[in-house]
Amino acid sequence: MEEVPLRITGVQTHDLRFPTSLQLDGSDAVHTDPDYSAALVILETNTALQGHGTTFTIGRGNEIGYVRMRQALQFLVVGKTLDSIVDNFGKFWDNMVNESQLRWIGPQKGVSHLATAALVNAIWDLWARREGKPVWQLLCDMTPQQLVNVMDFRYISDVLTKEEALDMLTIDPDVQKEREETMLKDGYPAYTTAAGWLGYKDEKIRVLCRQYLDAGWDEFKIKVGQDLADDRRRLQVVRETIGPERNLMVDANQRWDVPEAIYWMKELSEFRPLWIEEPTSPDDILGHAQIAKALAPYGIGVATGEMCQNKVMFKQFLQAGGMQFCQVDSCRLGGINEILPVYLMAHKLNVPVCPHAGGICLNEMVASTSRCLITSACRVARRNRRHRVRQHLSEHLETPAVCRGARYFPPQEPGYSCRFRPEALSAFRFPDGTEWKRLIRAGLARNTRTD
Amino acid sequence: MEEVPLRITGVQTHDLRFPTSLQLDGSDAVHTDPDYSAALVILETNTALQGHGTTFTIGRGNEIGYVRMRQALQFLVVGKTLDSIVDNFGKFWDNMVNESQLRWIGPQKGVSHLATAALVNAIWDLWARREGKPVWQLLCDMTPQQLVNVMDFRYISDVLTKEEALDMLTIDPDVQKEREETMLKDGYPAYTTAAGWLGYKDEKIRVLCRQYLDAGWDEFKIKVGQDLADDRRRLQVVRETIGPERNLMVDANQRWDVPEAIYWMKELSEFRPLWIEEPTSPDDILGHAQIAKALAPYGIGVATGEMCQNKVMFKQFLQAGGMQFCQVDSCRLGGINEILPVYLMAHKLNVPVCPHAGGICLNEMVASTSRCLITSACRVARRNRRHRVRQHLSEHLETPAVCRGARYFPPQEPGYSCRFRPEALSAFRFPDGTEWKRLIRAGLARNTRTD
Q: What is chain A's percent helix, strand, coil content, to nearest 5?
C-alpha cells in the first residue's frame, strides 16, 4: 500500500506575550519596556505531526505578524505536501518572499519578513520531526547539493554563487564527523549579558561578575550609551573584576549617530572592549563601516545583525567592512533558508558569526542552527563563535536550550525546539490567557490590541 | 472667549482596493497582478475638519497596514491637539517611529513605516486644511526654522545637520517668491510610462509614442528585464519614433542580480537610456553603486527609491553613488517629515529628485510636495526634476492632480489631495464595497482577507 504523503491541512496562530516589562527585564537605552513575545504558528497536518515556529517580538505589534502569517499561510502552504515544499525549498522560499502583491509591503523586511520566519521555522520543525531528528542533525545529514537546494541566491550572486556554495560545503566526511563529535562533547561557547545592565551599582556588578566567573563564564557584555560617565564607571568595575585577559563587549542598542559613536567609543577604548554592538541605525551599512574604520586602531570591532533585515543587507555589511562580528537572528531573517547563505558569505569574507539570542526561543533556535553550522552541516566553520545567553522564560518551552557552565549543548529531541508548554499557552496568550486576565484586572497591564 | 484647540478625537480606517489586476494595468516583471490599493486613514476631530491620509499598496496585505494604523494611532494621536503635534513635529515623528515596543517589528521599514506614512500624511492634510492652504503652500509659508522643526536628524547627522539644513533653507524672499510664481505659471515636467509596456507590439508602441509626442510629452520610460531580445526590439521602436534627442528611460523593477544588470544594460546602451531604474534589490546600496560605476562610461545613470525604506537608506545611496536619480516615494517614507531631509541630502550631494508617482494618490501627493520643494519651501532646488505620470484611478479622488500637456500644476484646494470621493469608498472598500461584492459573486475575485 502506498504511503499517504504528509500534507499541511491548517494553521493555528497564537499571540503569546510575557509581562517582562513589569520587571524591566531585557530593557535597554532604546527598548525601555519590552514584553517578550512570540507570534507562534502551528502547522497542522493530515497526521498527528505538527510543525511549530515562532517569531520573537517585544510586545505591541505581535498580533500584526500574527495576522500576516494567517494571510500568507493560506495562500502559500495550506494544502501542500511537506515534500513538495522541501524538495525545492529554495524556490519555495523565493516564491514566498516575492509573492506578487504582498512583496510591496516588504519586501523581505519588517513585519512581513518576521512572519516569514515563523512560517519557515515551523516548516523546518515539521520536517525534522518527520525525520525524527533535531534540526541540526537534519542539516548535518544533508548532502551539499541538498543544502544548496534550500537556499535562494537571488541578489547575492555577486558575492556567493550556487557553485561556490556547493564547493564550500563539500568536505571530507571524516572531518565532518569529527567536528560533529567535538561539538556534541564540548558544546559551544556562550557569553553573558547579565552582569552589567544600565544603572547597576558597583557592588552588584562585582558580585555578579564573580558569580559568573565561578560558574565558568569568561566573556561578558554590558549595555552602554545612556551616560558616558556611568558607562566608564561600570566598565571599570567589570574590567577590574574579570581581569585584563577576558573578553568584554559593549552594546549601544542603536543609540548613537555615526560621529557620536566614534567619539563615545574612543572614550571607552581604555577598557579594551572586543566589540561595540549596534552603535547606530541597523540600516546604516556605510555608517557602521566608518565607525569600524575609526575604531580599528583601538582594537575594537563592530558587531551588528540582530535587526539586520535580510541577506542582501548582510551581504553589504560584510562587503563594506561594517561588521566584524555577524549577529544573525533566527527570526529576523526568513528562517534557516536565509541563515545558511549568510553563514557562507560570512565564512567567505572571514567574519565570525555570533548569533543573536536572548529573546524568547532564540537560544533554542541558535542551539539548533549555530551548532549545526559550526560543525558539519555547513562544513565551513573554523572560527570561534559566541552567542549570548539569557535563560529567562525558557521554563515555558518544552525543550529549553541546554547550557552547562558557559557552553551550550545541542538538543537531542526531534524538531526545532520552538514548542511552548501547554500551560504557557493558556496563561500567556494575549490578552485572554489567565495570567494576562489577572494583570489586566489588577490594573497592571492593558489590552492594546484593537483587531 | 478662548478658542477651543483642534483635537484629534478618533480614527477611521478603510481598506480600499481597485481591481486593476483584471486588466493587468501597472503590471511589471516582478509585480504581475497588482490591485492598486489604498490603506486610508481619516482623523476625526472635535470640529467638522478631518485629516485624510493614505498608503499605496498593490492589494493583499493592505489590511495589515490598516490594523497597524489603528493600533499605532490609538497610542500616539487620539486625544492630542493638532498644535501639540505640529509645534514639535520632528520630535513627534521620532517618538512615533521609535515607539518602544513597536519599533522591534520595523524599525522604520516595511508595513510599520507604510502605516506611519498614512498617519503622517493625514496629519499634514488636517494641518493644511486648518490653515486653508494646499500642503505645498503651507510649506512655502513656513520659516526655515519651522521647516527644520518638522524634521528629525537622528542617524543622518553625518551627512546633514540641523544647522546645515537651516542654512540651506535660508534664502532671499524675493528669489523664493519668484520661484513660486514660475512654478505656478509653468508647472512641473513629467514623463510618461504608458507607451512601452512589456509585450506591446511594434505598431502599438509607435502609435502611442506619436500620440504622446503630439500631446507635448518628450520623455518616455519603458519596462525591461524579462527578455533581452524583446527589450531591444521595443527600445529600437521607441528611439526611432521619439528621435535621438529626447530622454528615454528604462525600468527593470528589481529583476536582476548585480552582474546581470551590468551585462543587460550594456546590451541596451546603444539606445542611450538616461537611466536604468531599480536594476536589483532595493536594499542593495553597494550593488547599485557597482552598477552605476560600470554604466557611467555609457552615460547611463541609476534611478531608484520607490522601495527605499527610509532616510538612512537614502543617505547611503546618495553617499555611495548608487543613485543618480532619487525617486522618493510619498508613502514608502514616513511622510513629509522624512521627505524633506531626503530632498536636502540629495541637494547637498547634487542628485536630482524625481519622485515616484503612478500609484493611487501618489501623483496627487507628489504634486503637493515636489512642487513645494522645487520652488520655495525648500528654497534649494536648482536641477530639473521629473516624475512619472499614470492618470488612471484619479477619477476616484476629490481633487485629482492637474496635468496639462506634459506638465503638472499644483493643486489650489486646501489639504494634501488624498481625499477619495464617497462613491469610491462605497464601491471599492474591500471586500464589502458594492463593486467587490459584484466581482466576488461573479467569480472574478475572492476575499483574501482573513482578519
A: 45, 15, 40
Which of B 247-306 lie inside 8 A of A, CB atoms? 257-260, 280-287, 290
Residues B257-266 as b or e (16 or more Cβ within 10 Å = b)? bbbbbbebbe
CA distance B312 to B39: 25
- Distance, in Å, from the CA atom of B301 to the CA atom of B292, rounded to the nearest integer, reads 6
Interface probe for B, chosen from A13, A21, A98, A105 (most Cβ of B below 10 Å), is: A105
Q: List Cα–Cα distances, A117 to A328, A423, B348, in angstroms.
A: 13, 24, 39
* Gyration radius from chain A CA atoms: 21
User: Between chains, do B35 and A319 touch, taking CB under 8 Å as contact?
Assistant: no
Query: Residue A432: which H helix or E strand, with range?
Result: none
Residue A296 in contact with residue A322, Cβ under 8 Å?
no
Indicate which residue of A223, A315, A347, A396 is catalytic.
Answer: A223
Q: Set out the domains of chain B in order of their start, with CATH numbers.
A: 8-132+422-441 (3.30.390.10), 166-409 (3.20.20.120)
Q: What are the average pLDDT values for consecutive 10-residue runs of chain B, which has 451 residues?
A: 86 90 70 84 96 88 78 85 97 91 88 91 96 91 92 97 92 83 81 80 93 91 93 96 95 96 98 97 98 98 96 98 92 92 90 81 70 45 48 79 81 90 93 93 84 64
**Measuring CA to CA, which residue among B10, B12, B16 is closest to residue B426?**
B16
Mean pLDDT of all residues belonging to chain A: 88
pTM: 0.94
**Rounded CA gap, B346 and B338, in Å?**
13
Task: Supply the ipTM of this predicted assembly.
Answer: 0.93
C-alpha cell at B305: 527609491
CA distance B303 to B221: 12
